[in-house]
Amino acid sequence: MNEKGMAADDGKRLFKQVYDHVIHRIEHGEWKAHEKLPSIRQLAEELGVHRLTVFRAYQMLKHNEKVYVKEKSGYYVNPNDPDRVVLEYGEDQPIVASGKLINSLSDIQRVSAAYQFSQALIDPNLLPNLFLSDYVKKVFDLYPKLMGTYSTVQGDEELREVLSRYMMQNHHTQLQASDIMITTGAQQAIDLLSRIFISPMDAVMIERPTYSAAIDIFRQQRARFIPVDIHHYGYDIANVERLMKQYKPRFFYMNPTFHNPTGYTVPSSQRKQLVELAERYRCLLIEDDAFHDMHFDGPPPQPLFTYDTEGWVVYLRSFSKYVAPGLRICAIIASPTVMKLLFTAKSLADNGSPLVNQKIFLHYFQSERLQQHIEKLRIALQVRRDIMEKELTPTGWNWVSPRGGLNLWIKLPEAIPVEQFLKECMQQSISFVPGIICDPLRKMRSQIRLSYSFINEKQLQQGVKNLVTVADRYS
Ligand SMILES: Cc1ncc(COP(=O)(O)O)c(C=O)c1O
């Protein structure tokens, strides 16, 4: 860090760096709870920055309750509360993330349960497993040196060619193989983008609720969250515009099609408007489209990226949920500028996803069998959704019936304390996702996510019956 000759913008970055630096040292135990931080002068000298910069960082630490002040003595470390998210600046509630390594969802999913409603995964019995195994042999015959070959960083060119043609046919847009990168699932894509675009304290817009792992990834980069409510009719567009204007976020991460956890789909009328706003306010849209083909009443609206002419949408299309989860293939479509950054980030992460997975996927993806599989899968999922909804109808709980995706997002009556309810369900070998972990504000205490995709019809029926019996104890 050095302040000599710096511009105003650099000054802002430097103050964020000092803030981040202090947090880092606290989290690594160098300064423990109730210990005194170095004086402003000492730290300024140590870091080679101006005292005012340290003063601003300390003030922000105090504001965010990371430290407290003792009159005429100095700044002291607040006792740690790892799950606490801190409101900053009031009104619109941007949140400063803790930067800790947390994955709330995987913590819940690690616990085994006979009735797994926490896994938004497809039941492996619904996948054409034997057919896939045959394919594996064929692919090895076709490429005898497959195991001895690395993928390129951007991904197998043959696969990118096929995916670009597929996207052009299905989404009526112009694409080349060079516009696509293959990653190991959408999760890796989100992680790479957050590494590229988020510096500590940067504002990022994020749906409320949202995919909980995305919260944890952005939080790890110490993003400042700007939550945007998602409703069954989409977003409040005027509010989206106001937030973009006010906070100049680095990006808006969204899952506008069969959204996880709610199942909502942003209507096409808003999609064009969102792209226009992104261009006007120079805010990237990260469009995560992990459930595109999992529709029950006909295909969803075209993705936002099809409206994009200036490169403000980064499109993530994961196939890992429903094509072949074991292969974990996701395609990122991005402008050349973003692709260049992704190239560096991906090369640092793993130098390219495994070629074996990409080639198996490529051949399976082009097969007729895949289309048949997807059609059957849609029907099977719809049947499971219907069973879950039927079993829940007598409860009077509230939800909007999803027209695609894998989950019901349910608002429970206030009388049911979700944390306690989850504990009791776990004792009965039933798991679900408490809404609070999908909320960047950590306030959704009455909502839960139930996935209907992972267990078979019979178990599903029994599991929901058991869940309702546990809930009845609170009425
Ligand atoms: C919205 C969303 N994005 C991304 C992912 C992760 O996808 P992948 O399995 O491709 O890493 C999930 C998984 O549940 C998801 O729900």
From TrEMBL:
Residue ranges of domain HTH gntR-type in the record: 12-80
Pfam family, one: Aminotran_1_2
Cofactors that this protein relies on: pyridoxal 5'-phosphate
Domain of life: Bacteria
CDD domains: AAT_like, WHTH_GntR
Gene3D superfamilies: Aspartate Aminotransferase, domain 1 (3.90.1150.10), Type I PLP-dependent aspartate aminotransferase-like (Major domain) (3.40.640.10), Winged helix-like DNA-binding domain superfamily/Winged helix DNA-binding domain (1.10.10.10)
Protein's UniProt keywords contain Cell cycle: no
Keyword annotations from UniProtKB, A to Z: Aminotransferase, DNA-binding, Pyridoxal phosphate, Transcription, Transcription regulation, Transferase
Ranges in coiled-coil conformation: none
Alphabetized SUPFAM superfamilies for the sequence: PLP-dependent transferases, Winged helix' DNA-binding domain
One GO MF term attached to the UniProt entry: DNA binding
Family: Belongs to the class-I pyridoxal-phosphate-dependent aminotransferase family. In the C-terminal section; belongs to the class-I pyridoxal-phosphate-dependent aminotransferase family.
PANTHER family from the UniProt entry: HTH-TYPE TRANSCRIPTIONAL REGULATORY PROTEIN GABR
Subunit annotation: Homodimer.
Name of this chain's protein: GntR family transcriptional regulator
